[in-house]
Amino acid sequence: MKRIVITGAGGQIGSELVTSLRERYGTEAVMATDIRPLPDAVSNDGPTAILDAQDYNAVAQTALAHKADTIFHLAAILSAVGEENPSKAYDINMGTLRSVLEVARQEKYSVFTPSSIAVFGPTSPKEKTPQNTVMRPTTMYGITKVAGELLCDYYHRKYGVDTRGVRYPGLISYGAPPGGGTTDWAVDIFFQAVEKNRYTCFLDKNTTLPMMYMPDAIEASIQLMEADPNRLVHRNAFNVTAMHLNPQTLANEIKQHLPNFTIEYKVDQHREAIAQSWPRTIDDRAAKHEWDWSPKYNLKSMTAEMITELSHSLN
To answer: Which of 9, 114, 158, 190 has a beta carbon 3.0–4.6 Å from 32's, enabling a disulfide?
Structure first.
C-alpha cells in the first residue's frame, strides 16, 4: 500500500482507520471520503472528498485523481438501521461494493472490505464458530455481508483482484458514538457511564457476543492488508475476535472504576433477536495461522482505557 482511498471514512471504524493509516503511510497518502461532510479531525488533517460510493464513475475519478493503489471500502448501513429499510440497506451495501470492485478490476487496485459476525445465523454453531461453517443470516445486513464475501472471492478468483477482509465482531471505541449496530450497547454503556453513571441496556444481561476494542480492529485490518499474499488461504473474510462479553460482565468491570455505576435492562426484542442469532464465541485460528493475528487488549485493559479517554473528552 502506498496511496489509499477510504470510503465511509466518517463512520465509527473509518474515522480511526484514517488516523492510523496516515500515521503509517503519511498524511497525503490517505484520501478520506464519505457521502456526508467529514469531521474536522479528519478533514483538517489530509485530503478528503465527498463521494457517493454507489457511483462507479465518481469512485473511479476520485481514486485515479489520488493515484491510489488500495481502497478500504467501509461504506455500509449496519444491522439494526438496515432492518428499518432493508431495500435501502441492500442497494447501498451491494451497490457500493460493486462499484469499488469494478474500479479495482479496471485499475488493478487492492481492496479491503470488512465483513461481520452478522454473516452467521441461528443455524451456525454458537460456540467457537468456525471459519468455514453454515451462514444463513436473518438480517439484510448479514445477507449483504455474505454476498459481499462471495463477490470479493469471485473478483479475486476470476479477475485476480487482491481482495481481503475480516469478520468484525462487536467493536468498542471512544472515538465515535454508536452508529446503528446491534452491538452498539457495548459502546453506549461507556458514554452513559462516564456522563450519567447509569445505563439502560436494550439487550438481556446474559446475552454474550464476541467483541473487540477498536485499536485491535484497526490493527487487524492494516495487518491483513500488509500480509504476505502467499500465506493467505481465506482472504474474504477472516474470523477475528478478542473477548466475549455480555452486559452484566461489562457493567461489573465498569464498576471497578466507577463504583456508583448502575445498569437496568429494557430489552428491545428486535435487537435481542438479532443478537441471539449471532455467535457467542468465535474461532479465529485461521487468522492467527495465516497472518499472525493476535489482539493486544482484553476486558480489563480495554475498560480502563475507555473510561480514562472518555473522562477526558466528555468532562
So the answer is: 9
